[in-house]
Structure formats: C-alpha cells, structure tokens
C-alpha cells in the first residue's frame, strides 16, 4: 500500500478526551474515530488490526473443533422474557420497538438465541457434543463508556456455546476452550492469566476470566506472579484428547489467581509468598462459563438420552472481547513514540520509507524494494510522500509496524539502506539485498 494513497489520518497532538495510552494512540494513529459515546468507526489501519485479531481467534476456535456461524445483532425480546433475563439485564440492554410495536433489542450476548436454535434442531444424544461460535457486534449501554474501544457500547465479541449430554462432558468442552484461549492470547503476544471468576448475570457455577495485568485495567485481581512466566505456546497439546487438555488446565490453574469477587485474602497469603503476590488491576479480555441447564430448561433445549429419556442439554458460553483486544494489546506494547505491534497482529509487516522522493535513484530503489517485498508475500506500507524525513519517522514509529526499511540518497552512495526493528530500536546498515534476505 502506498502511503500517498492510503487513508491514514494521523494526528500530532494528543486528543484531550483520551485518558489512557491505548485510546490516545489509536486516535493519533488514525485507527478509529468516535461516532457517538462508546461507538466507533474503524478506519483502514485500525480495521486491519481488528481483522488480524479476529483471524487468530477464528483459527483457534476452529482448531478446538468449534464451528463458525453468524447470528443477527437484532433479536426479538420474546426469548429473553422466557429466560427471565429481559428484566434482569436492566438498562445495559438497548431496547428497540419495531413498526408493529414488537419489542426487539440489540443483542448484548446470545445465549437465548443459540439455545433456541439448538432446541429446534437437535433431538438425540448421538448429535452431541456440539460447539458453535460467531464473531458479531454486541451492544451494551454501559453506564460509563470510556477508554476508547476498551469499554465501548458497541463492540465486537467472539462468543461460543457448547452443548453436551452431562456435566462431565460439558467440563471437557470447557477445558477445550480454556486451552484455546491460552493459545489465542499468547499468539497475540499477550500474557493473559486465567483467573477464577464470578459468573454474574450469565449465571452458572464454573468460570474463568482471562486477564492481562495492566494498571489501566478495570478489574481488581489477585494472583501469583509466577503465572507470567508460564509458557503457553511451548505447551504441546492435542486438543482432541480430553486427558491431555485436562492436564493443561490443571497446570494453568494450580497457582492462585482470582478476580476480586472470588478473592480470599487468607488463602492468598497462605498460598503465595509475599514477593510473588500481585494485587492490582487487569484487563478482562476473555471469559468462559459453564452454566449447566440454566438456559436449556426454560428454553426447552432437551435431547433424548441413550435410555430414551428426555434430558436438558448442558451448556457453557465463551466470550472474547475482539475489539477490546486492540486496545489491550497497545496497553501491553507501546513506548513514548507510539505503538509496537506484535508481528501476528500488525496492520502491515513493514514500513518502507523513501527519504527523498525527488531523487531518481532513491525512488527507483524504493520501487524495486517495494515490489520485491510484495512478491515475497510481505504486506508493505510504502511512504512515498513528499514529506520531511522527521515527520515520516515519527509517523512510522507511531503506527508501530514491526520493521522499518529506510532508503535515502546518502546511504545509497555507499550502497546501503537502513533496517530498524521497532520493538528493540536496533538499526542495521546493510545492502538492500541483505535486508530483503533477512526480511523474507
Ligand atoms: P466487563 O467486566 O469488562 O464489563 P463483562 O464481564 O461484562 O466485561 P462478558 O459478558 O464476560 O463481559 O463478555 C465477554 C467479553 O466481552 C469480555 O471478557 C470482554 O473482553 C468483552 N467486553 C465486555 N464488555 C465490553 C465492552 N463494553 N467493550 C468492549 N469489550 C467488552
Ligand atoms: Mg460488563
Ligand atoms: Mg467482567
Ligand atoms: Mg465477564
């Protein structure tokens, strides 16, 4: 992509309304624009990151044996009346009336709808288990939308639902998602710690929140710092083998880690030596629940058992804050100059900077590098604008692409270009050929 053609409205000044660094950087880097309180448009750069995150989430859901579908954003109120949550959800639910005076709502979550679909489609134990997910916009009329996409009103969520014959089988499904979540966040360069959590309005009895430790987080958490050193991606696991999956879950739940509703100060002090106690804030990026028959009973999701009896299906639900993750990753990875994207979610792999567009040799070399990098499958943002070098460097640092390749007439005199690693700041002067060899 040529920077001269790309819609990337970066800003030099820090927007006043943004209280935390990720919000400031997302606005400055031209990733989002607010449309109304807690509702955002995603500009091309931001949307690229959102899609990368979505892709990782999708790959790991698929790997866990979960099947993608798509449910609507607008739901009818009827099912929510049946489940009892139409009143329980309160003012966080955005309620809508259609022209026939029917009560509708913008879905804050989808347990009711998926349970209803299941109830009308599955009859027998032979069809179980089933794991289904979708990635869809949700609306929650949050009391205090803030921190940009971290607490939006409209936000993108991956929500999955499991259907099993009994609680034992349901626990196996739960464990599968648990491991999928560990992998998902680790692939984004995040240390997300699974913490014992309260189930809240979703209901049920077994639940973990996946939390990134950060002072700007809105959850109060308590955990053993040793969790931060746990190696997730190095943990080899066959997701189809419940025993192996269970062992990983046991390993990742041995140390103390709880959200404030579940916190037990006595146990915390007894189990965790003082120097390893983390007591602070965290960002909830995922949440998994097992809630048994809470929805299947009122919504009539029954199946026929092996013995020919009718039994309610056992369910769990599993959320990931896809749009919140964009902010969460920036909170975890930035410096004074801007964002530092982990390669897996970066909007482009590399920024190519032409230091002097009116210099023929410089531009020819840049064009050559641009096409060779693209041929090698790299996604390149080529800054071909007639701008000051300082402004180009500042912009490139701000948007945080993993690599910067700078080509200018001075270096070219000795046949050299500069390659900079955004995360480490390390710069190398080398020939274009060696730079390309290193990158591709
Ligand atoms: P929170 O405690 O932050 O209000 P929640 O517990 O209400 O979140 P869940 O119902 O567990 O949220 O939804 C699943 C995931 O959706 C959360 O773990 C979070 O990552 C994301 N999420 C929830 N509310 C928002 C929001 N207002 N903006 C962005 N993401 C959100
Ligand atoms: Mg909430
Ligand atoms: Mg919560
Ligand atoms: Mg939650």
UniProtKB/TrEMBL annotation:
It is found in: Cytoplasm. Residues 38-342 form the Aminoacyl-transfer RNA synthetases class-II family profile domain. One of its GO terms (molecular function) is proline-tRNA ligase activity. The keyword S-adenosyl-L-methionine does not apply. Catalyzes the attachment of proline to tRNA(Pro) in a two-step reaction: proline is first activated by ATP to form Pro-AMP and then transferred to the acceptor end of tRNA(Pro). Belongs to the class-II aminoacyl-tRNA synthetase family. ProS type 2 subfamily. It is an enzyme of class 6 (ligase). Its EC number is 6.1.1.15. This is Proline--tRNA ligase. It catalyses: tRNA(Pro) + L-proline + ATP = L-prolyl-tRNA(Pro) + AMP + diphosphate. Homodimer. Keywords: Aminoacyl-tRNA synthetase, ATP-binding, Cytoplasm, Ligase, Nucleotide-binding, Protein biosynthesis.
